[in-house]
Design goal:
Length: about 325
């Protein structure tokens, strides 16, 4: 009996540590937020069922009591004044952090503290969920924000238990982005904040158009290992909004695809759009961008830098991406 109790008391592996697997991200980078939450992913191998079900169920059991206590500790005034909300993926995390009061946020996705992608430091103030249904049910939120691509079984369990689950589809256009900002603002009870964020996005679009006026540049977004986000990606969308041309279309790429070094040199776009201007290659994927042939034709002065965290999701950070584009256009014009 004592041995059995000791096993229960021992630390259990996080579900993410057991089942995490690499997926191709939507724009540039190593792991898509939509691989973490909802969107277009590079094909991957399915993990063994036992690697998913056992540890995830055990971790959920471990979290239930802790999260239930946290739910009871939340101020009573928070639930009376505005809905208490849980986010299941990193893109709804972004919207929730931007539009809700801190007291309304009951929990964020298990990837929300990834500082490489976005406001990881801010996310550390809030509970992190396992991705399963148990901890969400224990917290008893007023609203759960999820993605169409979050785990279907988890969403079905939540619905079956009467949880108010609001599913955010993948935004395909900037009009969709505005609508989702507005939707989250309404859910949180702060439509005025959503209006302000939409106005910020529109102002950033106007500034980018002004910065690109008269410049008929052909831009090629380029990421690790030669991955090119296409014209239907968020990077492609902000380039189009600014009045710039994505050369990905000349390669027949709509959403995204891999191209060779030879194809890039032969295409000869005016600028490359990359996620950072670093000169160190931590792995082979990054080394592609620092290849001597590519650096010969595209030194720093021929590279437009838009940090990847700004284009991972179709949310409030797209305004920051457009502002970064405006700044870079001004820099290369000097």
């Amino acid at each position: 009996m004592r041995g059995w109790l000791r096993k229960l008391a021992s630390p259990l592996p996080l579900a993410g540590e057991v089942v995490a697997h690499r997926k191709m991200r939507y724009g540039w980078g190593k792991l898509s937020p939509y691989g973490r939450c909802c969107s277009w992913r590079h094909p991957h191998r399915n993990p063994p069922p036992q690697a998913v079900e056992g540890p995830q169920r055990l971790r959920g059991a471990r979290l239930v009591l802790t999260l239930a206590v946290m739910a009871c500790a939340l101020p009573a005034s928070a639930s009376a004044a505005a809905p208490r909300i849980i986010s299941m993926n990193i893109c709804t995390d972004q919207l929730l952090l931007a539009l809700a009061d801190p007291a309304q946020i009951m929990g964020l996705s298990r990837f929300s503290r990834d500082a490489r992608q976005w406001a990881g430091a801010e996310a550390r103030k809030y509970p992190i969920l396992s991705g399963g249904a148990e901890d969400i049910l224990a917290l008893k939120p007023d609203v759960v924000a999820a993605s169409d691509f979050d785990k279907r079984s988890t969403r079905e369990i939540l619905k079956a238990n009467g949880v108010n689950l609001v599913e955010f589809p993948i935004p395909r256009t900037l009009a969709d982005v505005r609508e989702q900002i507005r939707q989250m603002g309404d859910l949180a009870g702060h439509p005025e904040r959503a209006t302000a964020e939409i106005a910020r996005l529109d102002a950033a679009i106007a500034a980018a158009k002004q910065a690109a006026a008269g410049k008929h540049f052909r831009m090629l977004p380029l990421s690790r290992r030669g991955w090119v986000p296409g014209r239907d990606s968020f990077v492609g969308a902000i380039l189009a909004e600014a009045g710039l041309v994505s050369a990905a279309g000349e390669l027949g790429i709509s959403f995204g695809g891999f191209v060779s070094m030879e194809e890039i040199i032969r295409l000869r776009p005016d600028y490359l759009v990359v996620s950072d201007a670093g000169d160190r290659a931590e792995d082979d994927g990054r080394a592609f961008l620092l290849h001597p042939a590519l650096e010969r034709f595209y030194p720093r002065s021929k590279r437009i830098v838009i940090p990847e965290r700004m284009t991972e999701c179709g949310g409030v950070l797209l305004a920051d991406a457009l502002n970064a584009l405006s700044s870079e256009l001004k820099r290369v014009a000097q």
